[in-house]
Design goal:
292 residues; six-stranded mixed beta sheet; 8 helices; 6 strands; transmembrane helix; endoplasmic reticulum; Sec22a/c; SEC22a-c_C
Length: 292
């Protein structure tokens, strides 16, 4: 039978259990999975914020946010979208009641019962949202080798996750940021079109300067790269955006004979505006750990 077997809420920094569902399962496989869950709970700070670990016929799913981890054991056949929707609901309940420092055991039990009867769930919209989110950002698939042993001597393997930055999220997108991104895409598309036309001119007239083609395509790449920097958190993000803006300015200067003043001003202004929006949309600051 496909169902949720166990759930717990833990503190990320040291794996301290804050609450857990009542454990009625005496199956050896479930108890073995709980050992893996305990080891995982002490490694949450080293792992991506959404993961799945397969342990035989059981799956361990977990998410972490704001210094708190939400973990569960379910049958292998249990739908992933329901599993992470269940964890998302636990997270919302904890955020609402964090001042009590412990999420209610009764709530975990009731939520577990609801998710063990998917037909009775009236959360189709939430499931659709979760389905889309999982498609866009699927859980990281762990293996038991990532944990080493489960007898207290688990080895550290943080290098495998270096650069993932699981909790590094950008601030919410504002209207000005969306406008700047659209304008930057427009400028990049215009550069692409002019670059293609320049290639056609070179093929028809060998005396044409091929450097114009390079300038158009470099300008296109810089515009598209600024859109990427606006959307995603990367290292040296502000410096990269300034370098991209500098490249846009250099390409515009080189192409001044092929564009009028208003066109040049438009490309440079859009580049400056997008660079500003990238700088304003910074990674979110260190999240509170809700005093747990």
């Amino acid at each position: 039978m496909s169902m949720v077997l166990f759930a717990s809420v833990v503190r990320v920094r040291d794996g301290l259990p804050l609450s857990a569902s009542t454990d009625y399962e005496q199956d050896r496989g479930v108890q073995e999975s709980k050992k893996y869950l305990k080891t995982l709970s002490k490694k949450l700070s080293q792992l991506p914020d959404r993961c799945t670990l397969k342990t035989g016929q059981y799956n361990i799913n977990f998410t972490s946010s704001l210094g708190v981890g939400y973990m569960m054991i379910c049958m292998e056949s249990y739908p992933s979208v329901l599993a992470f929707s269940f964890l998302d609901e636990l997270q919302r309940e904890f955020i609402v009641s964090y001042d009590t420092k412990r999420i209610s055991n009764n709530f975990i039990q009731k939520t577990k019962q609801r998710y063990n009867s998917p037909r009775s769930l009236s959360i189709k919209i939430n499931l659709a949202d979760m389905q889309t989110e999982i498609k866009l950002r699927p859980p990281y698939q762990l293996s038991t080798s990532d944990l080493g042993t489960v007898n207290g001597f688990a080895h550290q393997s943080t290098s495998k996750y270096k650069g993932i930055a699981p909790n590094q999220m950008l601030e919410p997108v504002m209207l000005a940021g969306i406008v700047s991104c659209m304008l930057s895409l427009l400028c990049g598309s215009l550069n692409l079109i002019r670059g293609v036309h320049a290639i056609e001119s070179i093929l028809q007239n060998e005396d044409e300067d091929c450097n114009y083609v390079i300038a158009f395509f470099l300008g296109m790449a810089a515009c598209f790269y600024q859109c990427y920097l606006f959307a995603f958190c990367t290292s040296w993000r502000n410096m990269k955006s300034c370098l991209s803006f500098g490249l846009i300015c250099l390409c515009s200067m080189y192409l001044y004979e092929l564009r009028n003043m208003w066109q040049l001003l438009f490309h440079v202004t859009v580049g400056a505006f997008t660079t500003l929006q990238i700088r304003l949309r910074q990674p979110q600051g260190k999240a509170p750990d809700y005093n747990v």
